[in-house]
């Protein structure tokens, strides 16, 4: 027993109730059914230290066990009335009890006839599969020796070196059946989360668990402003598991989810600790968050890419993906007829929402061929059951597919957005019906004025050369009305196009460029709620919003013409 004196015997009124084990100088773990009827008068003794007999104890935490033989939550945490001078039990990483072959395990209990000094039983884990996601089944190593019987409940299940892998929770009633069940450490932590700090993630080398728990306590004490979901995604990576529905209330909840729910969590816990260290030691670690009026939107795009498939005039390729913390998560890619696109997009967008962080601000972005930029995507219904236009339910923007795939233009647009993020507000540079058609004249004007937003009086099919010229420049924001001036010869001013631009300039005055998608959504809602929605100037507003910093570009082609 030298070095393992933390094995405990649970008693009440001189009667032995079961076993337990010391995990801190004042804390003992056992089964809830061991202390179910004897919450008063409990004492704990340690057979390895006879001088420590009869330490008073109370039930500090109950796992919620309801009283049935197969009810979950059979865990109790006992608080000792005084500290005991013993080294607490040490733990092995979760899953260490498994293997081929499975290692022999020991349990130290107090069966009838041996309730004074105890007995040791030797068992093995049968399988990595959990019974009802709660218990690991144990079977005796041999057909003789000490079976697990009354008096072993609550005993630590250990490796041969004494490291704890679980706790004996159930035993067979028949004397000849040498089968039992244990609660593994990760299940025990469900009912007593504080156990997480005691269980390492690695068997050898620097373990991230103590460091990470210490960092979380420091973050709480220093009032660090950090989103748990972001740290979780940084830790598990782009293809890691999703956070639970509803996200995390605290950083500690995110840490515990990584520790117990992520397979082989050591690397993820290390990344979590590294990222949290950066935030704690960074120059802006403890600044208060900006007010809503100045805090720019941090969009989480849902990307819908529509392009010609090359398989026929009516065939298109549609790809849906979601961006989370800057990482792209594909949803699906299909080839469809034009008539099938809207219904598919409705389903794809709905699925893409499951990939977003719980607190994300969604931005529906349609990447379209240049000749389809006027596609009425903002008017598409949210679903077959919800006729609300997408553009009223969510911020909806379009992007030009050619610009999206151009590294040159994405680089230039990125530089333009760096200037825009410095706090500028929107100024509409008008492209009226009477703007000269000479393309280089328009280019020079927009370059000299350092245009950030170009507003068009005509839709793309009525002014194709002007749109072509502006799209080939790093002007990040374009706005037009799909029902703008058709450009017929001899039309009179003010036309519908100029009326649109007048109203647009008034409504966008002072709006930060980063907030335009949300502002345009509000304009669409205003139009829908108007007494004459078809006559409202913003009814058919289309926003092209090119912000490369919101999402990485398409992956480079791996095709080479050299075979």
From the alpha carbons, calculate the radius of gyration and give it in angstroms: 33 Å
Largest sheet geometry = 6 strands, antiparallel, barrel
Structural class by SSE content: alpha+beta
Instruction: Tell me the number of strands.
Output: 21
Tally of alpha and pi helices: 13
Approximate strand percentage: 15-25%
What percent of residues adopt helix (DSSP H or I)? 10-25%
Mean pLDDT: 86
Regions with little confidence, pLDDT below 50 for 5+ residues = 284-296, 555-563
- N/C terminus separation: 70 Å
Shape: elongated
Q: Going across the biggest sheet, name each strand in turn.
A: 1-2-3-6-5-4
Q: What's this entry about, in short?
A:
The protein is an alpha+beta fold and 563 residues long. The protein has helices spanning 185-191, 208-222, 228-236, 251-261, 266-281, 341-352, 390-393, 401-404, 407-420, 439-448, 464-471, 496-508, 516-529, and strands spanning 7-12, 15-24, 27-30, 42-45, 55-62, 76-80, 105-109, 119-125, 136-140, 156-158, 164-171, 179-184, 299-308, 315-324, 327-337, 361-368, 396-400, 428-431, 453-456, 477-481, 541-545.
Task: Explain the layout of strands and helices.
Elements: E1 7-12, E2 15-24, E3 27-30, E4 42-45, E5 55-62, E6 76-80, E7 105-109, E8 119-125, E9 136-140, E10 156-158, E11 164-171, E12 179-184, H1 185-191, H2 208-222, H3 228-236, H4 251-261, H5 266-281, E13 299-308, E14 315-324, E15 327-337, H6 341-352, E16 361-368, H7 390-393, E17 396-400, H8 401-404, H9 407-420, E18 428-431, H10 439-448, E19 453-456, H11 464-471, E20 477-481, H12 496-508, H13 516-529, E21 541-545
Parallel strand pairs: 13-16, 16-17, 18-19, 19-20
Antiparallel strand pairs: 1-2, 1-4, 2-3, 3-6, 4-5, 5-6, 7-8, 7-10, 8-9, 9-12, 10-11, 11-12, 13-14, 14-15, 20-21
């Amino acid at each position: 027993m030298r070095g393992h004196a933390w094995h405990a015997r649970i008693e009440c009124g001189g009667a032995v109730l079961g076993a337990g084990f010391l995990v801190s100088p004042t804390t003992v773990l056992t089964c809830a059914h061991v202390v179910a009827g004897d919450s008063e008068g409990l004492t704990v003794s340690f057979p390895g230290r006879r001088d420590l007999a009869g330490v008073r104890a109370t039930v500090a935490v109950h796992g919620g066990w309801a009283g049935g033989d197969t009810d979950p939550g059979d865990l109790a945490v006992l608080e000792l009335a005084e500290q005991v001078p013993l080294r607490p039990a040490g733990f092995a990483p979760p899953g260490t009890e498994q293997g081929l072959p499975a290692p022999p395990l020991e349990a130290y209990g107090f069966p009838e006839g041996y309730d004074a000094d105890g007995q040791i039983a030797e068992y093995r884990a049968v399988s990595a599969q959990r019974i009802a996601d709660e218990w690991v089944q144990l079977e005796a190593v041999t057909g003789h020796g000490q079976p697990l019987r009354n008096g072993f409940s609550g005993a630590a299940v250990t490796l041969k070196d004494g490291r704890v892998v679980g706790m004996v929770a159930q035993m067979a009633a028949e004397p000849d059946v040498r089968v039992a069940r244990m609660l593994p450490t990760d299940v025990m932590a469900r009912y007593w989360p504080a156990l997480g700090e005691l269980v390492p993630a690695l068997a050898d080398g620097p373990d991230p668990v103590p460091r990470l728990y210490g960092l979380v306590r420091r973050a709480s004490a220093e009032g660090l402003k950090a989103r748990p979901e972001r740290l979780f995604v940084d830790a598990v990576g782009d293809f890691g598991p999703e956070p639970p529905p509803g996200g995390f209330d605290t950083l500690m909840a995110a840490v515990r989810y990584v520790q117990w729910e992520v397979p082989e969590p050591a690397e993820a816990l290390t990344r979590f600790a590294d990222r949290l260290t950066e935030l704690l030691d960074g120059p802006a670690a403890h600044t208060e968050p900006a007010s809503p009026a100045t805090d720019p939107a941090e969009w989480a795009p849902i990307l819908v890419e529509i392009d010609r498939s090359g398989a026929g005039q009516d065939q298109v390729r549609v790809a849906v993906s979601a961006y989370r913390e800057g990482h792209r998560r594909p949803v699906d890619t299909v080839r469809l007829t034009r008539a099938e696109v809207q219904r598919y997009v409705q389903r794809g967008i709905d699925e893409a929402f499951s990939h977003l962080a719980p607190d994300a601000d969604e931005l529906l972005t349609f990447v379209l061929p240049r000749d389809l930029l006027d596609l009425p995507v903002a008017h598409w219904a949210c679903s077959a059951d919800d006729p609300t236009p997408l553009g009223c339910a969510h911020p909806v923007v379009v992007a030009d597919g050619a610009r999206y795939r151009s590294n040159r233009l994405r680089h230039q647009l990125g530089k333009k957005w760096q200037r825009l993020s410095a706090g500028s507000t929107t100024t509409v540079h008008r492209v009226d019906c009477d703007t000269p058609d000479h393309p280089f004249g328009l280019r020079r004007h927009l370059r000299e004025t350092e245009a950030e937003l170009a507003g068009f009086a005509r839709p793309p099919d009525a002014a194709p050369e002007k749109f072509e010229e502006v799209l080939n420049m790093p002007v990040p924001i374009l706005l037009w009305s799909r029902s703008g001036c058709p450009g017929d010869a001899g039309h009179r001013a003010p036309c519908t196009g100029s009326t649109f631009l007048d109203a647009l300039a008034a409504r966008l005055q002072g709006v930060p460029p980063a907030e335009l998608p949300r502002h345009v959504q509000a304009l669409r809602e205003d139009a829908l709620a108007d007494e004459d929605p078809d006559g409202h100037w913003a009814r058919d507003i289309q926003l092209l919003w090119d912000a490369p910093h919101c999402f990485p570009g398409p992956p480079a082609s791996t095709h080479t013409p050299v075979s």
